[in-house]
Amino acid sequence: MRETRIAQASIFENYAEHEFGEQLKALSGLLDEHPDILMLLEKDLIDESVKPVGRSGLTVENIFRCLLLKQQLQISYDRLAFHLADSRSYRTFVRLADGLTPKKSSLQSTIRAIKPDTLEQAYKMLSVDWVEKGYLSTKLARVDSTVVKSNITAPSDSQLLNDSVRVLSRQLAKSREITGVKIRFTDKRRASKSLAFCIFNAKNAKKEVLYPDFLKLVQVVLRQVESALNQVIDKGAPGEATQNWINDVMHYRDLTLKVVDQTTRRVIEKQSVPSSEKIVSIFEPHTDIIVKGFRDTQYGHKVNLSSDKNGFITYFSIEEGNPSDKDIFMPVLQAYQDNFNCLPDTIVGDGGYASKDNVSKGRALGVKQVVFHKRVGISFHAMGVKRKTFERLRNFRAGVEGNISELKRAFGAGKATWKGHDGFKAFVWSSMISYNLVRLARLQVG
């Protein structure tokens, strides 16, 4: 059975005499101040039904520290396993027991077992404690939004159709091995790949001829899938493996039907399909289409955040869909009230948040100064500032761009590489926790 932490850690800490070694030592001290985080993680990492016999393996503390180390270094599980076997500083930080060298499969399975809601709670727990200790300031807040990309390529109708055929055909080919039922079907993967290639390289006139053929091919595959499902449901070996196969095939079948529908509407019927109805990946179907201003279209999820004067992230949320910045301004103030039991004296946001309604609601709650980078017809008096103060706060707001840049560049939040919607959120929240912890550790090191 997994333990929460080693009962008695070594009194000898072997950190390298290097700037990063000092940072790891300070970070370790910060984590020791919050053993309650390990209690949160226990529910995800400890299975109470497992008998407490045999070797316990990685502790909850080991796993959480491995997660933080991975996000700081932005490395693969394989490279993380190498560093933990090779580096005394990393082993000391993670607090690995003598003789324990986890493999990449063990690291991946344990780290990914931590749920995003648990990481969000850990982030809030740290934030509240640091506000009470004076590390984080709630007096002055700057707000901005950005996009964390999903780990997908730019979508196209032909590629989505090809992915659908490829995945469904692969499932049919694996049926005998998993369910015990051999499915006889005509493999269309090669023809699908050829059509997708031709469409990608063809001119528009040629594409209009090729797409109907591609849709007919996909319909053939869908009919084969329906027949296979009926066979497996009737004759498949009972058990979890068969049910998982059925669930996977039905999942990808439903996604394929959505792809066929949107391709027919867009390409054949020349309709404009709303972003909310589009699917851009059958592997990461949770992905939203985000267009910010006149910039390029991005595929991922919009995040909303605020930072204080020292660059700590004091508020963070992962949004669903593509809400207007105006609509996600007031939730920032509500979160301050809920988490810290106080409101900032001054809050300054990007011009996208600006509206007279947000100014009046913020001032009504008790915020002294509600300022936006662009005034959009809002008077200085309404925002609670004079012109000189407005210009100073506008310059202060620009600092949040640097915080976002560091979060993406140094902690990997530019693109979430973990699979699934929960994986996306867990990756982003782990980046957030690492960012704030490392920033505080750096300030303490000096």
Structure description:
This protein has 446 residues and is α/β, with parallel strands linked by helices. The chain has three domains: 19-114, no CATH class; 117-152 and 287-432, no CATH class; 157-277, no CATH class. Helix content is 57%, strand content 9%. The protein is built from 18 helices and seven strands. Strands 1, 2, 3, 4, 5, 6 and 7 form a seven-stranded mixed β-sheet that branches. Helix 8 (157-173) packs parallel to helix 11 (204-235) and helix 10 (189-201) packs antiparallel against helix 11. It is globular and about 70 Å long. The two termini are 40 Å apart.
What are the main properties of this structure?
446 residues, alpha/beta, 57% helix, 9% strand
Q: What fraction strand?
A: 5-15%
Number of domains: 3
Fraction of residues in helix: 55-70%
* Average of the residue pLDDT scores: 92
Low-confidence blocks of residues: none
Structure class: alpha/beta
Tell me about the largest β-sheet: 7 strands, mixed
| Secondary-structure element string | HHHHHHHEHHHHHEEEHEHEHHHEH
Shape: globular
Q: What Rg do the Cα atoms give?
A: 26 Å
* Number of discrete helical segments: 18
Ends distance: 40 Å
Number of strands: 7
